[in-house]
Amino acid sequence: GQSLEQPSEVTAVEGAIVQINCTYQTSGFYGLSWYQQHDGGAPTFLSYNALDGLEETGRFSSFLSRSDSYGYLLLQELQMKDSASYFCAVRDRGTGFQKLVFGTGTRLLVSP
Amino acid sequence: NAGVTQTPKFQVLKTGQSMTLQCAQDMNHNSMYWYRQDPGMGLRLIYYSASEGTTDKGEVPNGYNVSRLNKREFSLRLESAAPSQTSVYFCASSEGWQGGTSTGYEQYFGPGTRLTVT
What we know:
The structure holds two protein chains of two kinds. Chain A is about 0% helix and about 55% strand. Chain A is built from no helices and eleven strands. Chain A has strands at about 5, 10-15, 20-25, 30-35, 45-50, 55, 60-65, 70-75, 85-90, 100, 105-110. In chain A, the strands form two sheets. In chain A, strands 2, 4, 5, 9, 10 and 11 form a six-stranded mixed beta sheet that branches. Chain A has a five-stranded antiparallel beta sheet with strand order 1-3-8-7-6, with no helix packed on it. The radius of gyration of chain A is 14 Å and the shape is globular. Chain B is built from no helices and eleven strands. In chain B, strands 2, 4, 5, 6, 9, 10 and 11 form a seven-stranded mixed beta sheet that branches. In chain B, strands 1-3-8-7 form a four-stranded antiparallel beta sheet, with no helix packed on it. In chain B, about 35% of the residues are buried. The mean pLDDT of chain B is about 90. Classes of the chains: A mainly beta, B mainly beta.
């Protein structure tokens, strides 16, 4: 099966840079994705990495190292509105990759 | 485009009552999903439908049934609600997965249904 590990909580101040890590164990791998969820809201897709390296989308970047089974989400120039939970996810080989398996999420708290 | 819509937004049930949560998407997606999220927890998959006409169990299917009514609609039914089913329920949709591409990795979520069972 698949398992993903993330820190439960990360704190940072406005303007800072924060990194949220995700390590995964999976018998087949077809990429790592990230989702953001504000309190009371629905998850929204942030990024996807299929290959090693860094993908940049504005203030957010996502990194993948397949050899280390590891990825991270990098948030720069933090803003108060970035306070949310962040989930990494991989495809589930057991269902022919038809479904995503989500990590338990990292709660990011941004303070002034 | 409305994206993914869910009804109702809130619901309170008594133990033993039944109800159906409705979900519809207007993005012509093949795949649809039902998740539950308990406080401080991640998303757990209840059921999914990889394409119209097919449904499969996820991690926590007990106590639930689903119907893929057509390509747009995917409903979740609680036959006999229990307090353990108090949760927030999210429906999601995506394009069918195509290996080696990002297609299907981006799931679009509805606003959720907040269900309390007393």
